[in-house]
Write a structure and sequence with these properties.
Shape of chain A: globular
Helix content of chain A: 55-70%
Number of helices of chain B: 14
Number of domains of chain B: 2
Helix content of chain B: over 70%
Main location (chain B): membrane
Order of helices and strands of chain A: HEEHHHHHHHHHHH
CATH superfamily of chain A: MetI-like
Radius of gyration of chain A: 24 Å
Pfam family, one (chain B): BPD_transp_1
Oligomer: heterodimer
Order of helices and strands of chain B: HHHHHHHHHHHHHH
Protein name (chain B): Carbohydrate ABC transporter permease
CATH topology of the largest domain in chain B: MetI-like fold
Number of strands of chain A: 2
Distance between the termini of chain A: 28 Å
CATH superfamily of the largest domain in chain B: MetI-like
InterPro entries (chain B): BP-dep_ABC_trans_perm (IPR050901), MetI-like (IPR000515), MetI-like_sf (IPR035906)
Number of helices of chain A: 12
Keywords (chain B): Cell membrane, Membrane, Transmembrane, Transmembrane helix, Transport
Chain lengths: ~290, ~290
Amino acid sequence: MRVARSPRTPYVLIAPAVVAMLGFLVYPMGSVIYYSLQHYDVTQPWDNGFAGLENFRVLLFEDPLFWQSLGFSVKWVVVEVVLQLLFGLALALIVNETFIGRAVSRALVFSPWAVSGVLTTGIWILLYNPSTGFFRYLADIGIGSYDTAPLADPSTVFAAAVVAELWRGVPFFAILLLADLQTVSGELYEAASVDGASRIRRFIHITLPHLKDAIILSTLLRAVWEFNNVDLLYTLTGGGPAHQTTTLPLYVAAKAVQSHDFGYGSALTTAAFLVLTFFSIAYLRLSKFGARS
Amino acid sequence: MTTTLIRPVSKAAPPITRKPANRVSRWQIYLPLGLYLLFTLVPFYWMVVFAFRPRGSNSLLPWPVTLENFEHVWTGMGFSVFFQNSLLVGVASLVSTTVIALAGGYALARYDFRGRQAFLIGMLCTQFIPGAMMLIPLFEIFRTLGLVNSLWALVIAETVFQLPLSLILISGFVKNIPIELEQAAWVDGCSRLRGFFAVVLPMLRPALVAVGSFAFIHSWNNFLFALMFVNEQDKFTLPVGLAFTIGEFSADFGALAAGGVVAAVPVVLVFAVIQRYLVQGLSAGAVKG
């Protein structure tokens, strides 16, 4: 029920939000698309001017790093989102039970959510470093070797980064799914128990359908977030070794922060935005978000 | 409602039908939980040990406790300044996000106005706009406004990125408050504004806590905006300061760990206090978002 007495009130109330988002989200997004059609390099201003689709031609056909970083982005997002969802769901189910120490356990297992990407890097650099890390103390008691250096070894750097990001990422799913689990009506479970349904059957027929929309939405938000998030990789691996762990946004950030080639950086940005929007729409369509089953 | 029909049955039934196999046994909870707690806590512990133990020690216990690493980062490396900057940006972002989202969220929940639907769709779309990709255009805007090297640039960018989610959460929460409560206040002679402060605001506490803490934690943690928009060392925030420590990490692990503790303590404390409300706020807001 909405009561509209003064037709102007809602506009006044929402104006600050609209102005802020138009000025600092919509307008910049538009200007990215504009810059992507320009030659615009702060260090080479004499070349600035309209470029047409030149930036995109270079990007598609002459820049192997674009394709490589896009490919790595996909791999990174899929691995992270799937693992975070599985661990997060399991964790949410566990801390949704009633047991002694539940409140403390929740606070502790959720806590890495509040930690920044840079801090995560700091902590895991300590853990991975051959002289200060976990593996050195394992070697002290005779397990493994002293020169285990997960971040320096090209064959383990991906797994090392994945684990560090999992540490911080799992609580996101656990919190969101726990919030949704708490809205399942207890009567449904009771009715199912009366009918003799096992725990697994109750999970499949009551819990999962109830969580469906929350899972779709949280995986999508997380996929977008993991795709865009650069803090951890930027500081943990710097995209290396040999660009092996460079995501597309990391490539953009490196272009923006280091090389000041804004025109080409904007073209990369536009390409990434298109990929992301296309993926999001397809995901929501294919997963039938909001459809009642 | 159908629930009234079911209730007598279900109340009587469980003691008879519930088999032991249906209950979760203790170890099914404590074993996986314990393992996961190890994975969560060992990294934190590692940081604490390196921060508090003396230089050159190889012990896995932070003993004897020393504060020399903290003195070094706090005064020698400028973390006291980074801390103040982070605090300023965090609190300012918290206030501006909460106030703007409160006004807008109330309007979205309680009024049907032209453009409401378009705004909601637009807000969803902004969720797909990546922060890293806004670096270049935002930098240009802040340069035009003369805000490069100003902490206000960070406050603005943080607020704008937090707004969509905050608006959705608050409007979902306002919808859950029966309008009749407000109407009763109006009948008693309250103005709409007074009715809002007297009736709606107190009930919004979990939502405000969720939105405010999201805003604070996100801006406290943001790295890329601070790295891009601020170049002077006395304007650095903690993540930027910490990233520079990582850059020199081969030299000083104690400083890295102590800097990490300084950056972690405020958010982890805030989080420990609010995480209960966070789950409440999300489950209430999510239902009718």
